[in-house]
Amino acid sequence: MLSTNISIIVPCYKQAKYLDECLQSVFDQIFTDWECIIVNDGSPDDTEFIAKKWIEKDSRFKYFYKENGGLSSARNFGIESAVGEWILPLDADDYISDDYLQLAKSHFKNNNLKVIYCLARKFGLQTEILKLEKFSLKQLALENVIFCTAFYKKSDWQKAEGYDENLKSGYEDWEFWINILKESGEVLKLEKVCFFYRIKEDSMLINLKKINDESTIQYIENKHRLFFEKNLGSIRNLYRENEQNKKVLDAINKRFFSRVVNKLYSIKENFFNRF
């Protein structure tokens, strides 16, 4: 029997209706040296029934149940039980191409690599390429530029002490990438669409909520203050610069709007002065 090289972690909470499609994409992998750990995070739907069908079909699928604790908690729980050298998180409502593991595996010998990801496409309510800025530490300090379904070593997860379970409302991926990449390590992007990210109504609402979640962003900035200051300068100074830039833009917009109104008023006056 092959030793397991990749552990795929699938946390599940109220996503049972998508789980078959997700697990089918794992089952279809060209590269076969994997295990798939399904973590039922206290889900009240048919997650257990569907998961057990797959563990009966293929022994590489493993199933665990835990009390609900959130996404970070479910991932940590699954990774703790993982035996693979490399970890690939995969949310239960998404799926991967059949060659994603094979393409990533060809780069595992590069010991400097810490993260491997790919091009991604949205599906569901939106169907387009997922647009992310090119990775750099500076760009990572500005925003998350790597989605959750990327490969990394379990040893790096251990050094980072896992996903931060204090992050209940999102940004857990962003904080995790900062945590494992802030000191050193290379990131590789495969130039092929291998990840498919489902867009549905609740995911759009979650993304909107995340954009406005200033307290979570501040928590991450405080936790990794040296990283942000190294790549962006003083966060406080950056904030002041942004505030100043906003004031300048507001002033420009007001002046532009004022000129437009005055011009329209002048045209109106000239028109009526003809009669």
TrEMBL record:
What is a single Pfam family found in this protein's UniProt entry? Answer: Glycos_transf_2
Q: Which CDD domains match?
A: Glyco_tranf_GTA_type
Under the heading InterPro entries, the entry gives: Glyco_trans_2-like (IPR001173), Nucleotide-diphossugar_trans (IPR029044)
Write down the Gene3D superfamilies for this protein, in alphabetical order: Spore Coat Polysaccharide Biosynthesis Protein SpsA, Chain A (3.90.550.10)
| Residue ranges of every copy of the Glycosyltransferase 2-like domain listed in the record | 7-130
Q: Name one GO molecular function term.
A: hexosyltransferase activity
> Keyword annotations for this protein?
Transferase
Q: Does the keyword Transport apply?
A: no
PANTHER family assigned to the protein according to its UniProt record, in alphabetical order: GLYCOSYLTRANSFERASE
Report the protein name in the record.
Answer: Glycosyl transferase family 2
| Species name | Halpernia frigidisoli
